[in-house]
Amino acid sequence: TLTTLGLMAQPEANYDETKVPKFSVPDPLTTFSGEAITDSQEWEEKRKLEIYQFFEKQIYGKVPALLDEYSFKVIEQDNQALEGKAQRKQITVGLKKNNRTLNFNILLYLPNGNEKAPVFLGYNFHGNHTVTDDPNVIIPEAWNENNADLKISSNKATEASRGVRMHRWSIDKMLDNGYGLATVYYGEIDPDKNDFSDGLHSLFYAEEQTKPKTNEWGSIAAWAYGLSRAMDYLENDTNISNVIVFGHSRLGKAALWAGATDDRFSGVISNNSGCGGAALFKRKFGETIGHINNSFPHWFSESFKKYSNKEEILPVDQHQLLALIAPRPLYVASAVEDEWADPKGEFLSTQYASKVYGLYGKKGIDLTEFPETDRPIQQTMAYHMRSGKHDVTAYDWDQYMTWAETFAK
Ligand code: GTR
Questions:
Q1: What is the Cα–Cα distance from 216 to 298, expressed in whole angstroms?
Q2: d(CA 350, CA 188)
Q3: Cα 100 to ligand 1 centre (Å)
Q4: Most distant CA pair in the chain: distance in Å?
Q5: Which residues line the pocket of ligand 1, CB cutoff 6 A?
Q6: What share of the chain is helix, strand, coil (3-state, %, to 5)?
Q7: d(Cα 45, Cα 58) in Å, to the nearest integer?
């Protein structure tokens, strides 16, 4: 059967475990030429780089060049925000290339009373003003996807959408537990539509160029790059001890790639990131490469399209993306009802990446059984399967904070 999703008819998603194809998991500890890797030094010198380069050229796409200029400016600050609980800063970051400029705003809350705090950095889907009802948070000007439930129309956020996504960010609890939050509206980096004329990509074009080259970045890589540019500011803020990068769903894919490309992130959290995130492609359970390239042709590099409905010829899988983050703490979280994201595939890739963590003497996920729902496993690598649907909940944040307390501070 075929279903029409976007551009081309695609096979219907499989949700039947007995129909998952038999496949062999590419071994993180055997090089493409067949050499065995036995310690962390060999991993870094021989294997990590070739895996990294594969993901860079064939999946997410390469960043084409360096920026010409980087600048930041604290445009708003209140040391007694949120009833005195927090310091709030809003920082405009300016990126310049070929005389073109792109600006984005970081909203930063730091807990009062601590000299230095660990910070969660994560993109939001519709604007910094959606994560809190704080009336002082700036509403983004950039293109915004319409969403009637969230009161966004005419592709522009307004006052009407202030606070509409508060439930996804446990800001009060973060502050009470001594964590800060930094968030950015992802549409300020690259509007999420199949159009390469705007956003970060367009800064880097040569004259007459209208889209990235075949092996160059899609939107996920551009969003990951934006997280690193936010980090350029955060790592110099003297009130911040370390930054844990977080993302949900498509933004979880971006958080993972940011974690793999930038080791300044001291920890990485993937919340329901699914296909192209933590889930294994080769299981073809729920969303597949064909589906994702078809519905979101702009997310990956053009070179990744050759793997649509050809998972078997892909020489890597997503556990190797996770392994690129080793030995830094990594949390992968799924939700039971989020079958489109293949929770079991997210779990298995976490488990398969564990042996790379083992090379560093770090504990991964050593369970062989699929874990029980709402029973988190927390080591340097952590995993939980939450009851409920595709979302970010207070439960998720409670687990992330408990884990970060021991492993990622
Ligand atoms: C879906 C997409 C998923 C996931 C999700 C989201 O439509 O198929 O890969 O990214 O969107 O970001 O919420």
A1: 11
A2: 31
A3: 30
A4: 60
A5: 249-250, 274-275, 287, 292, 295
A6: 35, 25, 45
A7: 21
